Amino acid sequence: MEALDIVHVSKENQESVFAMLTAVLWLGNVTFTVIDNENHVEAVVDEGLINVAKLIGCNVGELKIALSTRKMKVGNDNIVQKLTLSQAIDTRDALAKSIYACLFEWLVEQVNKSLAVGKRRTGRSISILDIYGFESFDRNSFEQFCINYANERLQQHFNRHLFKLEQEEYIQDGIDWTKVEFEDNQDCLNLFEKKPLGLLSLLDEESTFPNGTDLTFANKLKQHLNSNSYFRGERGKAFSVHHYAGEVIYDTTGFLEKNRDLLHLDSIQLLSSCTCHLPQIFASNMLAQSEKPVGGPLYKSGGADSQKLSVATKFKGQLFQLMQRLEKTTPHFIRCIKPNDFQSPGMYEQGLVLQQLRCCGVLEVVRISRSGFPTRMSHQKFARRYGFLLLENVASQDPLSVSVAILHQFNILPEMYQVGYTKLFFRTGQIGVLEDTRNRTLHGILRVQSCFRGYQARQYLKELRRGIATLQSFVRGEKTRKKYAVLLQRHRAAMVMQKQIKGRIARKQFVDVHDASILIQSVIRGWLVRRCSGDVGLLKVGGRKGNESDEVLVKSSVLAELQRRVLKAEAALREKEEENDILHQRLQQYENRWSEYELKMKSMEEVWQKQMRSLQSSLSIAKKSLAIDDSERNSDASVNVNDDRDYSWDTGSNLKGQESNGLRPMSAGLSVISRLAEEFEQRSQVFGDDAKFLVEVKSGQAEASLNPDRELRRLKQMFEAWKKDYGVRLRETKVILHKLGNEEGTVDRVRKKWWGRRNSSRIN
């Protein structure tokens, strides 16, 4: 099973093979029973018959009928003939033999398919023919007759190649040769194959007769072949044939039955009707072979039915096919010698061995080999094989001259070779010197070639390595540059992220510090205001009326509110100045890109800055003057009021009216200043935002569907108009504040007069 697996026979086919082998074994166990007085029999339906039917896949009844009867066609009628015991046994054995033979051929075909034999016709195949040799026993039957006939034909092939063709080649090539005589077995072959009075022809003829027996066959041989020197009739049914290996006596008992093809058409039809695929294949092969003509140079006949072809005819046809195939090959022979007849090891019978050597023609082969020329080579092949060992001028001549020059150069003795018409013939061992010299020369050439090819390979390897290194450097450089670009991008992204984070942290810290500073400033300023309010409160007199203390507290709160607003206005002014500086810096960054627009913007910005500074200076001067006057008046008024709280019994009503009149204009002035400051902040913010937006539109940082130059000129005109209006209102505010200051001066003069009268009254 392992071997079948190796040659790729499927498991299903293996099971079928084993089933066929088992069926062959069970066929030997099939028995028959007599059913009438004429010795007719039929198969017994027992374990053997049932197993055979089951294994080959047919019906038990059909198998029983095929083994017990035979269908014959007489005219247009079909007659069923019952078989006798001997005929039934022969039919059973023929079926078993045919199944076994077809199974063997099928396995050989599967092995050849697995090895792909025959697919590639290269002419380089080797075929081995293994045959035992002649068989000569005490009783030689039909099997030994066929085997010895095949050996006779193979011996003829041996003689033809080693004696006939060998010596014919010497003579045809024109060399000096003495012909060696040998024993030719062609007459013995004619005894077997001659028509119509050959052994095989007479056997087939007698097998076709219904009343033919082995005795009639023996008598017919004696009648027709006694004149042949290779045939001799014996007593009874025996005859002897003088083969090349010796005389063999054959017993004709069973010759006719064994020669007849006992596998009838009924058995083939039975196999074709089986359910298993192998019996169907066997039946189709049998029918196909029956339609093929039996070929051969000595046998020419058309197609015949399998029932008309005898075993000897089939054997002869197969033998001629084998011989045709052998004729197309270059044969080599191995002769096996039988050492003794007892099949004992280490024992040689001299007479038996010598007889085999003489019969096989080995002595003649040795004689021809000793005196002949076993090594031969054509002039072209010899010159082509050894011509390179000579000089160039000799090697360029014709092959015969080159061959002769080679022989002279290597000092080969004339008796050791002969020059034919087409070939050179050498005795044994003479070609070895040339082969040794050729091998040494080729070895040296190959050594030089190997060194040179190794040098070329090393140079190629160096160049390849250099190219690979260059390519690798390019690839690695490209990969490194890509990695560096990625790292650089990541680094820049990290820097941007760090910048954003650090800027956010710095802005947060700045906002925190700014808020803390504002908080501290507010606390300090509140503390200062509260301290100033506390100092003013220390001047209060306990006996003064409640309305006078309320007036002092109102003045202090107004002063604090005024200071807070002034500080807020200053802070707003500083912020606006910083924003103006930032805008100025941004405008300077785009000077190189838009020189003409920047020159215009610069001039407009300078004019705008001068105007803003003039307004700011005017506003700051007004605030400062107002703050100084208010502080002085408030301090004087506080002192005067405190003093009057003790000594205003006669002028209190007048002073009260005056002070109330003086406080109302002061509140009006503060409200005017506050409105101007708020308007200044709002206008500055609006103009700054508009100018910043137009600059961004001009530089491309922002998108808007407007003309920045025209809008900037319009903004300048609006700024000029507002500046004029603001200047007029600022001058009007100054005039109002100046009037308020004069009214307060009148009050001061009244107070001074009152203070002088009070001081004089105290002195008095």
TrEMBL record:
Q: Give any single GO term for biological process.
A: actin filament organization
Classify the source by domain of life: Eukaryota
Q: Describe the location of the Myosin motor domain by residue ranges.
A: 1-439
User: InterPro entries attached here?
Assistant: IQ_motif_EF-hand-BS (IPR000048), Kinesin_motor_dom_sf (IPR036961), Myosin_head_motor_dom-like (IPR001609), P-loop_NTPase (IPR027417)
Q: Which GO terms describe its cellular component?
A: cytoplasm; membrane; myosin complex
Instruction: Kindly give the PROSITE patterns that the UniProt entry links to this protein.
Output: IQ (PS50096), MYOSIN_MOTOR (PS51456)
Q: Where is the composition biased (Polar residues)?
A: 650-661
Could you list the residue ranges that cross the membrane? Answer: none
**What family name appears in the similarity comment?**
Belongs to the TRAFAC class myosin-kinesin ATPase superfamily. Myosin family.
Its protein name is Myosin motor domain-containing protein
